[in-house]
């Protein structure tokens, strides 16, 4: 097969490394003005190629198709079928679809197909994927790994919280594809360990969260270093006005496809609200956490997460905390324990709201209701993935009811109201809530507490200065 960038000419008829040529900007588009804050998607100007009916029909290397077959994948999801024929042809893509719908392969297969048989130079990757969190970046890398190996593509995951010198060494050895969080990639660029002048494809995954987390300056600086005529792909479960700036500035004549505007449209996901009193809230959450099977439970702050995890462990529940205050090795091991079932209750902040996929997870609980409808959608998106069923339960105090009603309206969700109190039979029916043992358990620590550089080892006195 022929690849759009292998002969030095892009599919738009311009030199593939025309650094001095400014990429045309898309015309400004009117905002929708809706309550959700989402902008009006641009129309596809140049007609898109027809959707693919199967992976076999796509113009991809045979090794990728064989790997898909081994993974049990024969028919693409809707977002994959619509975008892959166009991204494989070198078109820019703007895609919106719910979590768990296959966005990673929608852009990943196109990237890997274009890298098949290529040579990776030291410090100069050919493709980059930007993700807002370490967990999402790692999941993208893990998901693409078997496909990358099948076509001989070397990848590197570049995230904070891990030794930067190891990541720099991997880049110096030469990689085709870098999956990164924006901050760490900028650090490596400033050190001269990563140069983007050969990047032909750049992907923004969950772009709206990157803008919400304040990564817009880093993302803009990174995309400005990428050759202007390369391929850009932007995928997200929600798109708001902050993302519109990136679309207008960096995407050229994109193929636009939108699936499942709201998570509330997922027919296999049910939403429930439990009205509780302040005195009953923790007991209700504990009864749910003591269920058979796994559950992710969200709270607003790191301190609240740690306290809840300690409380659950003291009451016989295999719980573990996950938040940005823990080291990356701790976070990675905690997720592995949860996926294996060694931990049954994952207590987390919004750091776990995206980028975590656990097969068979059927329950998400908001112990603290989110304040933003997008956070609600993404928290809930950890369940009912890839056609599976699931429930999202939110515990609501009396003073929070009005705000949650507004949030549900913006998310276009009509929840079922469950009976309040700790003895509600409906709660047990939906969540499997049950009495807890009160017998303390321990979960193996993910990693020893990190010691500050200026902190003396135990048993030694630090000399006075």
TrEMBL record:
Similarity comment text for this entry: Belongs to the DEAD box helicase family.
Keywords assigned: ATP-binding, Helicase, Hydrolase, Nucleotide-binding
Molecular-function GO term, any one: hydrolase activity
Helicase ATP-binding domain segment(s): 84-257
Motif Q motif, chain ranges: 53-81
Pfam families the UniProt entry points to: DEAD, Helicase_C
Domain Helicase C-terminal: 280-447
PANTHER family tied to this protein: ATP-DEPENDENT RNA HELICASE RHLE, ATP-DEPENDENT RNA HELICASE RHLE-RELATED
PROSITE patterns: HELICASE_ATP_BIND_1, HELICASE_CTER, Q_MOTIF
Domain DEAD-box RNA helicase Q: start-end pairs: 53-81
EC number: 3.6.4.-
Basic residues: compositionally biased ranges: 14-28
SUPFAM superfamilies: P-loop containing nucleoside triphosphate hydrolases
InterPro entries referenced in this protein's UniProt entry, alphabetically: DEAD/DEAH_box_helicase_dom (IPR011545), DEAD/DEAH_RhlB (IPR044742), DEAD_box_RNA_helicase (IPR050079), Helicase_ATP-bd (IPR014001), Helicase_C-like (IPR001650), P-loop_NTPase (IPR027417), RNA_helicase_DEAD_Q_motif (IPR014014)
Chain intervals for the UniProt region annotation (Disordered): 1-43, 420-465
Annotated Gene3D superfamilies: P-loop containing nucleotide triphosphate hydrolases
SMART domains linked to this entry: DEXDc (SM00487), HELICc (SM00490)
UniProt protein name: DEAD/DEAH box helicase
């Amino acid at each position: 097969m022929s690849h759009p960038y292998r002969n030095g000419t892009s599919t738009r008829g311009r030199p593939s490394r025309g650094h001095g040529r400014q990429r045309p900007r898309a015309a400004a588009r009117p905002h929708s003005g809706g309550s959700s804050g989402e902008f009006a998607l641009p129309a596809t100007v140049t007609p898109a190629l027809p959707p693919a009916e199967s992976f076999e029909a796509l113009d991809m290397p045979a090794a990728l198709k064989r790997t898909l077959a081994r993974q049990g994948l024969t028919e693409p999801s809707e977002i994959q079928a619509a975008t892959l024929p166009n991204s494989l042809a070198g078109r820019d893509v703007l895609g919106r679809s719910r979590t768990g719908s296959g966005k990673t392969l929608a852009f990943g297969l196109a990237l890997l197909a274009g890298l098949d048989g290529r040579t990776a130079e030291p410090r100069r990757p050919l493709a980059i994927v930007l993700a807002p969190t370490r967990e999402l970046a790692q999941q993208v890398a893990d998901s693409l790994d078997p496909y990358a190996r099948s076509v001989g593509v070397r990848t590197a995951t570049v995230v904070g919280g891990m030794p930067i010198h190891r990541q720099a060494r991997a880049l110096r050895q030469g990689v085709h594809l870098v999956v990164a969080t924006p901050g760490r990639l900028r650090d490596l660029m400033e050190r001269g360990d990563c140069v983007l002048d050969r990047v032909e494809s750049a992907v923004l995954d969950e772009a709206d969260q990157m803008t919400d987390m304040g990564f817009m300056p880093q993302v803009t600086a990174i995309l400005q270093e990428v050759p202007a005529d390369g391929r850009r792909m932007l995928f997200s479960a929600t798109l708001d006005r902050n993302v519109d700036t990136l679309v207008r500035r960096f995407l050229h004549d994109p193929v636009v496809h939108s699936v499942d505007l709201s998570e509330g449209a997922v027919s296999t996901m049910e939403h429930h609200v439990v009205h509780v009193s302040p005195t009953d809230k923790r007991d209700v959450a504990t009864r749910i956490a003591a269920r058979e099977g796994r559950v992710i439970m969200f709270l607003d702050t790191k301190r609240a997460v740690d306290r809840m995890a300690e409380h659950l462990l003291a009451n016989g529940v295999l719980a573990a905390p996950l938040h940005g205050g823990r080291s990356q090795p701790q976070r990675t091991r905690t997720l592995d324990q949860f996926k294996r079932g060694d931990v049954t209750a994952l207590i987390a902040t919004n750091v776990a709201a995206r980028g975590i996929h656990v097969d068979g997870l059927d329950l998400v609980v908001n112990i603290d209701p989110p304040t933003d409808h997008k956070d609600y959608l993404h928290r809930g998106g950890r369940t009912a993935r890839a056609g599976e069923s699931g429930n999202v339960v939110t515990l609501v105090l009396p003073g929070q009811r009005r705000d949650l009603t507004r949030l549900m309206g913006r998310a276009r969700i009509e929840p079922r109201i469950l009976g309040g109190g700790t003895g509600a039979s409906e709660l047990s029916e939906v969540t499997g809530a049950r009495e807890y043992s009160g017998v303390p358990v321990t979960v193996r620590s993910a990693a020893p507490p990190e010691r500050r550089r200026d902190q003396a080892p135990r048993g030694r006195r630090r000399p006075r200065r």
